[in-house]
Amino acid sequence: MGVVCNHTYPGTREGFILVVEIPPIEFETPPPTTAQIVGANGERRRAELADFLRKRRAHLKPEEVGLAGGGRRRTPGLRREEVAQLAGVGATWYTWLEQGRDVRASLDVLEAISRALRLTPAERTHLVLLGRGEEPPPCKSAERVSATVRRLIENLGPNPAYVIGRRWDYLAWNRAASAVFGDFAALPRAARNHVWVHFMDAARREMLPDWERSARLVVAKFRADSARHIGDPEFEQLIGTLRRSSPEFCQAWKRHEVARSGEGRKEIRHPQVGTLRFEHAVFHPTDSPEQRLILYSPLADEDTPAKLARLLEH
């Protein structure tokens, strides 16, 4: 854009024309409002949900879910009506989900669709995140350790290892772990819990020279985990029983300290071979993130590898 100015020299009739170029003014676009951001994100989530449902439906065969094959099909997988039937929802409503329409499914409905589509735990989480924009609650079904993880810990040889679940129940262990910490299988099923054993098993207490510090740390880590399960009857029952049964647990619980699991060192006073020293680390299986694989690696101190070998000979 230009501006033209007429100018005359002083005392004369002569003059000149001055053309001044002014750059165009750029007006800044106002930032999007919160409502616009939420709306855009919601639209993207609905589109992702629609695509995810279509892809999962296409990968399922009718016979895999107990339906008749129905002869040749124009498209692979289940029909929308069949998924709706298996999930117990209206076919029209399910179709709207696959079309990315602005409908909000309840958690119960998404859980039903997850079961109908035979989703894995990771896929179930993905479905709920897309459908509701929030993490789903953990599954309440009985916890199981995958066959792969079981084989892994069994093949670790002299390295003690065990898996604890979301409530810190012992779910799996190897021979080396039983040789060091005692026979897990001999414990009553209700007592196969890491926190319970730490406070209520006299033999375990004798094994730990720094039991007081260890006990306080165990409660702090368990307290942090229990915050995800407030109101869960299984957690409430365990915590209530421990508070009534163990003054030390009750005192540590009242401190309301929290901590995270991680790497560390542990010394064990074994009743047969004496002092053992280990490094340990915690790992979370990807498919079961609330489970923990605790792996102990023997240190050279106190001749620990040789002592472990003697224990495993029996």
What would a concise description of this structure say?
The chain is of the alpha+beta class. It has 13 helices and seven strands.
Description:
Helices cover 44% and strands 15% of the residues. With 314 residues, it is of the alpha+beta class. The protein has 2 domains: 34-132, 434 Repressor (Amino-terminal Domain) (Orthogonal Bundle), CATH 1.10.260.40; 147-313, Beta-Lactamase, CATH 3.30.450.180. The strands form 2 sheets. The protein has a 5-stranded antiparallel beta sheet. Strands 1-2 form a two-stranded antiparallel ribbon. Helix 2 crosses helix 4 and helix 11 crosses helix 12. The protein is elongated. The N and C termini lie far apart (95 Å).
Secondary structure blueprint with pairings:
Elements: E1 2-8, E2 15-21, H1 34-58, H2 80-87, H3 91-98, H4 107-116, H5 121-132, H6 147-154, E3 161-164, E4 170-173, H7 175-181, H8 194-200, H9 202-207, H10 211-226, H11 233-245, H12 247-255, E5 264-270, E6 274-283, E7 292-298, H13 304-313
Antiparallel strand pairs: 1-2, 3-4, 3-7, 5-6, 6-7
